[in-house]
Amino acid sequence: MPYGKTPAGDGEGNANFSDNESALKLWYGARKQSTQTGESQPGPNQNSGETQAGMQIAIQGEPGSFSHEAALKLVSDAVIVPFALSSEVFAALSRGDVEAAVVPIENSIAGSVSEHFDLLLAHDVQVERETLLLIRHNLIGISGSALDHIDRVFSHPVALAQCRRFLAAHPRMESFAFYDTAGSVKQLVHLRDRHAGAIASEAAAYYYGAQILMANIEDNPENYTRFFLVRRTSKAVCQPDANKISLAFSVENRPGSLVSALSELAGLSTNLTKIESRPVQGKPWEYIFYVDCQILHPDEGERAIEVLKPHCAMVKSLGCYKEAEKP
Asked: I want to staple 139 with a disulfide (CB 3.0 to 4.6 A). Which of 89, 121, 214, 327 is the partner?
């Protein structure tokens, strides 16, 4: 997409873009360096040399992101440890560098985060808790900016897609995909670019000292993301009031095998609330099935695993936990 002409610096600390190409290089060049070096700005719930007693929780993305907000909702005194990639989050958890991880698993509009299903299966981890977060997107600018100053908007592709009506109503604003919602605010403040905006959470604006130019710009107000609190299997605890289990299984490649497996679950009177299939890496046309089941007691989860085993080549519990209530 062609980049619109931008004004030169105004002597007030704003970025001086001599041409369109240099504007993109400033944004994406700095972003590349930041994600490669793991740089992050110190702020609330980040270790800045002081001893902190809260649980260390890894997230993918920058502080101030929705994952950060979900982590604090799950563990109020959490010490946030940000990573650029989800694979790095799970690797850090598996090594014991952090005590837990908080990852988005499903959005009510965009659907499942498929990569996180694969990572849950690949690592010796368990889901211990879940929460639902109401997603509110905001157009954010640097302090002193105004809505009519903005001619380009940066954010994660999912956030941009969830604000299509707002962007269509402001055709002078060109949208550009960025690696993270909060990361776009961080970059905005770093560059002091008064002609760029970011789409992110209210928490991100507060965290980086930016201002909200327009609040609640998402297309659908019923926009929720489900987040998992994940721990190493040896540390995970199934609460006595757990009423939900997540399972991964593969079935034999023969007629009726999937139906037989699901019939066994139905025979336990469990309520199947979600089913998702993912291809098996290196085995074309073979699939792993991920299911969520409502249960009355944690023991029902164990029975579900046992009845699946005769019909499945592999069965793994991804966690037994209490189902999150809609906020």
From this structure: 214
